[in-house]
Design brief:
It is built from 3 helices and 2 strands. By secondary structure, it is mostly helical. A hairpin with a 6-residue loop joins strand 1 and strand 2. Helix 1 packs antiparallel against helix 2. The longest helix has 42 residues. It comes from Psophia crepitans. It is a multi-pass membrane protein. This is OPN5 protein. Keywords: G-protein coupled receptor, Membrane, Receptor, Transducer, Transmembrane, Transmembrane helix.
Length: 130
Amino acid sequence: RWLFNQAVCTLYAFCGVLFGLCSLTSLTVLSTVCCLKVCYPAYGRCWAALSDLYLHPSLRMPVCPRARGYGPEPYGTACCIIWKASGREATLYILALFIFCYLLPCLLILVSYSLILWTVQVSQRAIRQH
């Protein structure tokens, strides 16, 4: 069972969401920068534009569940977002979290590394022809 009070549970869950989003967002930014450097060298210095991509989900999304709250997980050993959607606002938050903080970053990572692989293959073919 959760051994601490609700304030510690909320802090624990908030930090879990924040650091999880920061981790996935960091991987997304790194893959995008690598793609820009390899595939589009002229645009390889787009750090300012990518900083907003980094700050958006990492800092804004963990604050949103204040209306819904954080609570113990079903097993009661840790705390997280209360996933049981009980209203329209809760359902929209979970949907937005899934789409903007999980699905889109994963797709961007997949597209970035696919473009890198394609660029490397095209370069290898060009080298072989010469």
